[in-house]
Design goal:
Order of helices and strands of chain A: EEEHEEEHHEEEEHHHHHH
Keywords (chain A): ATP-binding, Cell cycle, Cell division, Kinase, Nucleotide-binding, Nucleus, Phosphoprotein, Serine/threonine-protein kinase, Transferase
Strand order of the largest sheet of chain B: 2-1-5
Number of strands of chain B: 5
Strand content of chain A: 15-25%
Number of helices of chain A: 9
Order of helices and strands of chain B: HEEHEEEHHHHHHHHHHH
GO molecular function (chain A): ATP binding; cyclin-dependent protein serine/threonine kinase activity; RNA polymerase II CTD heptapeptide repeat kinase activity
CATH class of the largest domain in chain A: Mainly Alpha
Chains: A alpha+beta (307), B mainly alpha (324), C mainly alpha (333)
Family (chain A): Belongs to the protein kinase superfamily. CMGC Ser/Thr protein kinase family. CDC2/CDKX subfamily.
Distance between the termini of chain A: 40 Å
Radius of gyration of chain B: 36 Å
Number of domains of chain A: 2
Largest sheet of chain B: 3 strands, antiparallel
Number of helices of chain B: 13
Radius of gyration of chain A: 20 Å
Helix content of chain B: 55-70%
Pfam families (chain A): Pkinase
Strand content of chain B: under 5%
CATH superfamily of the largest domain in chain A: Transferase(Phosphotransferase) domain 1
Largest sheet of chain A: 5 strands, antiparallel
InterPro entries (chain A): CDK (IPR050108), CDK7 (IPR037770), Kinase-like_dom_sf (IPR011009), Prot_kinase_dom (IPR000719), Protein_kinase_ATP_BS (IPR017441), Ser/Thr_kinase_AS (IPR008271)
Oligomer: heterotrimer
Chain lengths: 307, 324, 333
Amino acid sequence: MLRNEYTKEKRVGEGTYAVVYLGTKQSNNRKIAIKEIKTSGFKDGLDMSAIREVKYLQEMNHVNVIELVDVFMAQNNLNLVLEFLPADLEMIIKDQSILFTPADIKSWLLMTLRGVHHCHRNFILHRDLKPNNLLLGPDGQLKLADFGLARNLGSPQDLLTSNVVTRWYRAPELLFGARHYTGAIDMWSVGVIFAELMLRIPYLPGKDDVDQIDVTFRALGTPTDKDWPEISTFSAYNKIQFYPPPSRDELRKRFIAATENALYLMSGMLSLNPHKRWDSIKALTSQYFVELPEPTTPEELPKLGGK
Amino acid sequence: MDDDEKKDMCPICKTDRYLSPDMKFLVNPECYHKICESCVDRIFSLGPAQCPYEGCDKILRKNKFKTQVFDDVGVEKEVDIRKRVSNVFNKTMDDFDGDLAAYNKYLEEVEDIIYNLNNGVDVAKTEEKLRTYEDLNKQLIMSNMKRNRQDLENFEQQQKFEKEMRLKKRQLERQIEEEEVANREWARREIVNQLSKAEDAEDVVASVKKTVKLKKSSARRKLEDLNKVLKNNPFMMVSNGMLKKKESVPFTPFNGDRDLQKRYVLSETAYHDPFINDLQNKREFIASGFRADFVYDRMLTEAFMGLGCMVIDELQTAQLNGIH
Amino acid sequence: MTNTPTPSGSVDATKVQPIQRVSDDDLYRHSSQYRMWSFTPEQLAQKRVEINARAATVLETRVRSFLEQNPDLGSDEVAAITEKAVPVTADEEVLLVNYFARMLLTFATKMNLPTEVAATAVTFFRRFYLNNSVMDIVPKEIFYTTLFFACKSENFFIGIDSFAKKTKSKNEDVLKYEFRLLESLQFTLMNHHPFKALHGFFLDIQNILQGKVDLNYMGQVYTNCKKTIMEAILTDVVYFYSPPQITLAALLKEDEALAMRYLDLKFANEDSPGVLHLETLRTVIVACKDTMSANAVPSKEQATRTVAKIHFGQNPLSVVERMRRQRESASPP
């Protein structure tokens, strides 16, 4: 039976709706992680996050998306067997003992964008991209994980909830409560992550939802109806502070080690107007990835606890 | 008239450079006879003509004339031949996988060709050899040319990157200097200020010094970052001559797995879709980033996604192969 | 679209092994719908026979032990049980599932649920019975569960209280088999329904047959095809054909001339990218259309009879009770 196929060896984390264990797949001794989803105490039956996670991960098959190895039921609990990924990008960014180069940043960004491209070509929005959802395998491969907020791009008229994505990585249209957004919201998150990789500190750390709007526009300028048609439709727009957009030179000074192509790509992904924001194809085919330095090969990327 | 004087005189029209300083000499790689620019214009404007040198029967074309770079016509000729041959025989050490012996043998062969052409030995046969090689290796030659261009580009990029970094470094250093001057000024005034309120002099000086120390400027921090980057600069390896061995796999943004063979072309004008039209004119849709072209692209993708999957056949084949 | 940059000599960051180009067809082949829920007609038939046989054995064993535990039954009663408390056949199962699947669709439509949600509910319901027999869990017990779960899966969340109220059912009844449902669906929830493909063809036809089709007429074709596709979801074509093929079959049914003209023009040029062999495609679509039309739906009486049969099989005692009641009413005191 399945349930004897996997052992749970160590409890490594507990979230609101799941407990995560490290374990081993008996038949081939592969290290795995088991996400045991709590099922009691949910009035409405199976939790939506669990449903989404199962639903989308089953369809994904890409080096840069976490692999769902198996799913099984045990003691009336839902267990997701996932590939074992020992670190995440947030840990790497925060570990001051790790030094990383522009080539490393390029490699992580490349893998992130490939994962996002795969989601988007399957018409799936991730809706919670942030450094701690970008997991790193023992071989250095970066994988998109945590699809608890993901959803299909449904019918065009669908109303989407704007209450998605962790605050610091939330696109401006979401901050305004947009209900008909696109894959552009994921691209914004990637842009913010790119900035964070270069700065080694969060780029737009708003203290609360209102502050997030302020922090975002202080850094990138307040858009007008001209930059972003119909922005004044959002009721929150009319209450905000006006900031001028940063000059190229200001950006250069802030991102001191970035090349012009890197800044160009970052600004593309951080276009305030979602219509103008770069999609994953445009980002992946940008000059930044072609110019030197070449992206570091995954095996050679910095790892936790020194190389 | 001695040789030195001859050098500055056109042997055809006898104009002397001494008298007309703007005069320019040109040669044609067919025979390398030196002729002044105005003679070339005069003689060859109407089409190919024979070389005006006595006893030279080469037919020359105007567009083949070029400025002579080297004083010695012999050197000029050899350089031209070298250039021509190495454009065709353009392999580098990389193409021999580190086999030094093979690479040396190749270089010798190339030298032989150049020697023969330069000294008129077996010219017809050697030219034939050159042509044959060119025909057989067109693909390789083209890709090597591209690589050499790329190497040059990389080199230029590296130069640009380093220049940018140096510039930024200088800016930061200047900024730090300015800040330090300002800090010193501030400390001086602060000490005077606080002392006027009659506090203990030593304490005041110590505390002000401490504050200044804490004011580690952001510019300084950035400078440290920049130094780190420079220390790890991947270009440095190139400049140290330790060029990483390049693998032959070209960079592919999508890891090679994007489908470029779509079964449809997204039209910009052909679709009349009242439903989508209606949505794309709604203000809240526009503001949210809603895009009709995204919707069309999506629907068209779904229309053809799996059209070529002959499910029953494929499953039967899989069954026969014992996969299913 | 964006230009691909000229390849430089650089090393690919994530080069593990050469990865094959993934076509859109391959994307579909990666989907769980293709991997887990596509069958050949023989495989499907066999699956149904097996499910039925397994449940039948269980039922027969149960009836036998009932008879052993009740040796005091009269011989006519034993005869009635042996006659009535019998398993339903595989064919009866299919018909009953079809009957309830249609009811589910009608119900979802009455509830004003979006097309995709209704289609998913029907799909889940039918897939459930590819791993369970109607003799294990009767359709009524899983009916609302499927609908409720489909809503959640399609991001159309309705709280359990308001759902139970709308369906006049009890919370615990709706939720009782939710896990069993998820497990029976083999934990795969993504559906590629043909509705988006239909929208896509509606657009592409306008492009390929530019100026040659009347837009009002196209709108009408679209509406009718949508209805045909909804019907198709109730049939086995969903297991044998891909969504675009089902869509084209619907179009073929609606306007054969239009469908053929479109395909001829579309795939006439053998050199165009991703070209398909027109004849193969045509054969597949025609076969799909024929299977679509051949679907059998049982009458209400037929369905009621099967439900009763399951009931007797599950409770042999009820056969006896029914006999005794009939006998009592036949001979008044």
